[in-house]
Amino acid sequence: METALFMFGTIGGNDYNYAFFEGKPIEEVRNMVPQVVNTIMLGVKFTKPKFLTNVSAAYDESRCLKQMNDFAKYHNQQLQQAIHDLQQQSPNATVVYADYYNAYHFLLEHAKSHGLDTEGACCGECVGMMELGCVRIQSDT
Question: Which family does it belong to (predicted)?
Answer without folding.
Answer: Belongs to the 'GDSL' lipolytic enzyme family.
